[in-house]
Design brief:
The protein has a domain of 92 residues. Helix content is 58%, strand content 3%. The protein has a two-stranded antiparallel sheet with strand order 1-2. Pfam families: Transposase_24 (PF03004).
Length: 140
Amino acid sequence: MWSDPWQGWKDVPSHHRKRLFERFQQYYRWEDRSESLIYSCWEKCIKGKFPDLLKRARDKAKTLADQEDIELGNDLTPILPFKPLRISQEYWETLVEAWNTDSWKGKSSQNSENRGKAIGGRHTLGSKSFATVRKNMVRN
């Protein structure tokens, strides 16, 4: 799947997106008139799953390193030998290098903190969560 060290879906060039969609088409069939709608839905889905694919690869490498009694601490370099099969060693090294930057670690930490602060759950009605709307309705 990986033919470059993409860190996010926005980094995947359109010709690679097209190739990935063509691979998806090998497993599913639909009417030609539905092509653009199917592509749009597929892209929305994979765009949401892309960060999770990278996180799972990183977490699995961390787990394998831990099983070898390798301490990671704040440095991810020790996960280099535990690359996923679908990512070349060169791209894996580039990804691990990016994950080791202060910039990436700062964003990751901030995003983790923000997810922990989500009040009322993640399903929302506009800018208000369902829980907040429900609470306001009970009051009224």
